[in-house]
Amino acid sequence: MRFEIMRLDEVNGTTVDSTVVDAASVNRIVQQAAAIGQRLWIRPAEASAS
Fold it and tell me: For residue 7, what are the contacts with CB-CB under 8 A and spacing of at least 6?
């Protein structure tokens, strides 16, 4: 399964950037964000059109 991870602006909560990663990478990214106090929004990535 793939997830979209969006980094959020600290002031107003808008999306600064986003990336799509596999499930194995989510934990690493969350740990890194937690270490520096960064806000994330994580949701399942939309399936690409075939």
Answer: 15, 16, 17, 18, 33, 38, 39, 40
User: For 23, phi and psi rounded to 5 degrees?
Assistant: -60, -35
**In angstroms, what CA-CA distances link 49 with 34, 46?**
33, 9
> pTM for the complete prediction?
0.80
**Could you report how far apart the first and last alpha carbons of the chain are, in Å?**
16
Task: Decide if pLDDT at 50 tops 50.
Answer: no
Q: Which of 15, 49, 14 is nearest to 5 (CA)?
A: 15
| Three-state secondary-structure class, residue 47 | coil
Residues 6/37, Cβ–Cβ less than 8 Å = no
